[in-house]
Specification:
It is built from eight helices and 15 strands. It is of the alpha+beta class. It folds into two domains: about 120 residues, D-amino Acid Aminotransferase, Chain A, domain 1 (2-Layer Sandwich), CATH 3.30.470.10; about 160 residues, D-amino Acid Aminotransferase, subunit A, domain 2 (D-amino Acid Aminotransferase, Chain A, domain 2). Bound molecules: pyridoxal-5'-phosphate. The site of pyridoxal-5'-phosphate has 12 residues, from helix 6.
Length: about 300
C-alpha cells in the first residue's frame, strides 16, 4: 500500500490519474486513511472542473471558490504547498484526458476520530481526472426532467461541502420517480436549485434565478450564464420564485459544470412550457457553447437554435 506521500509513478496516459498529497499516480492506486475526517465526518470541501479540449475551463473561478469554501470551514491553510493552478493542468496533461472532469477534494486530514479540530494534522488534498462527454446536441434539444423534493439540507448550502447525503437521497428519489434531476424546494414552495445544478426560469422575456445566498451553491456556470445574459441584453432577476409560479413560466432550465445549459421540459411528471426547449434557453445554450469553444481554442459549434 502507498499513502500517496512517497510514491510518484508516472500515470502518463492513464485517464483516471490522481494527485494525492503531492504525488501523481493512477487513481486505482490511491489510498486514504480510515480516519480521514472527510470520510468519517464529511469535514471537507470539493470542486468539479470541466476539461474541454484538454484545458481546464474557468479554473481560476473554481480555485477562488475552493479557497472561499476552505475559509468558511477554517481550513484556509490546507493548500500550502499545493500550487493547484500548476498541479491540475499537469494532472490533465499526464492523464491524456481531452473531454472530462477533474474532481478536487480537500479534507481536514487523518486524525483519531473526534469532532473538534485536531492539532497538527496534514490536510488531505486530492484531485483526479475522468473522461466524460458534454451533453450531445440531441440531448439538449430533447431536454430533461426534474422531480421536486423538500430541501432538508443544512443552512450553508453556499459552501461546497462534501456533506452530500441530502443530495444523494434527493437525486435517488428523482431517479425513482423517473426524473433526471432533483429540484430542491424550500419553505413557502420556493424553488432553490437542482440536486447538483442551479435553475433559471423565463417569465415574459426576463430570466429569474434564486439569489446567491446561503440557500444555494453559487455555481460557476450560473455566474457565467448571468454574464452571458447581460451581454445578450437579457434582463436577469435574482429573486426567488415558487413551484406554483413555475407553472406559468415560459421556459425553465438547469445549469452546471456537467450539464452546461440544459432545458427542463417536465416538472414532477407534468410537461412545462409545452414540453419543449424554449428560444431563450437555446440561445443561452448556444452562447455558452460558443464561449466555451472560444476559451479552449476550438471552432464555434453549430447552433442548436438555428442548426
Ligand atoms: C447544489 C449544487 N448547485 C449548483 C451546482 C452547479 O455548480 P457549478 O456550475 O459550479 O458546477 C452544483 C454542482 O455540483 C451543486 O452541487
Amino acid at each position: 500500500m502507498n499513502t500517496g506521500g512517497n510514491v510518484s509513478p508516472d500515470p502518463h496516459g492513464v485517464p483516471e490519474s490522481l494527485y494525492l498529497n503531492g504525488a501523481y499516480l493512477p487513481l486505482v492506486d490511491g489510498r486514504i486513511g480510515v480516519e480521514d475526517r472527510g470520510f468519517q465526518l464529511g469535514d471537507g470541501v470539493y470542486e468539479v472542473v470541466k476539461v474541454v479540449n484538454g484545458r481546464l475551463l474557468w479554473l481560476e473561478d473554481h480555485l477562488q471558490r475552493l479557497v472561499w469554501s476552505l475559509g468558511q470551514i477554517r481550513l484556509q491553510h490546507a493548500l500550502r504547498g499545493h500550487a493547484l493552478d500548476r498541479v491540475l493542468p499537469r494532472l490533465v496533461a499526464l492523464s491524456g484526458v481531452q473531454q472530462g472532469t477533474v474532481y478536487l477534494q480537500v479534507t481536514r486530514g487523518v486524525a483519531p476520530r473526534d469532532f473538534p479540530f485536531p492539532d497538527e494534522v496534514e490536510p488531505t488534498v486530492l484531485a483526479y481526472t475522468r473522461p466524460a462527454e458534454p451533453p450531445a446536441p440531441e440531448a439538449v434539444l430533447a431536454g430533461t426532467t426534474v422531480h421536486p423534493v423538500e430541501d432538508v439540507r443544512w443552512a450553508r448550502c453556499d459552501i461546497k461541502s462534501t456533506n452530500l447525503l441530502a443530495a444523494v437521497l434527493a437525486k435517488q428519489a428523482a431517479r425513482d420517480a423517473g426524473a433526471d434531476e432533483a429540484l430542491f424546494v424550500g419553505p413557502g414552495g420556493v424553488v432553490r436549485e437542482g440536486g447538483s445544478s442551479n435553475v433559471f426560469a423565463v417569465f415574459a422575456g426576463r430570466v429569474w434565478t434564486h439569489p446567491a445566498d446561503t440557500h444555494i451553491l453559487n455555481g460557476i456556470t450560473r455566474r457565467h450564464v448571468i454574464d452571458l445574459c447581460a451581454r445578450m441584453g437579457v434582463e436577469v432577476v435574482e429573486r426567488a420564485f415558487t413551484l406554483e409560479g413555475l407553472e406559468a413560466a415560459d421556459e425553465f432550465f438547469l445549469v452546471s459544470t456537467a450539464r452546461d445549459v440544459m432545458p427542463v421540459v417536465a416538472v414532477g411528471g407534468r410537461p412545462l412550457a409545452g414540453g419543449r426547449p424554449g428560444p431563450v434557453t437555446l440561445a443561452l445554450a448556444d452562447a455558452l457553447r460558443a464561449e466555451v469553444a472560444r476559451l479552449v481554442g476550438l471552432p464555434a459549434p453549430p447552433s442548436l437554435l438555428h442548426g
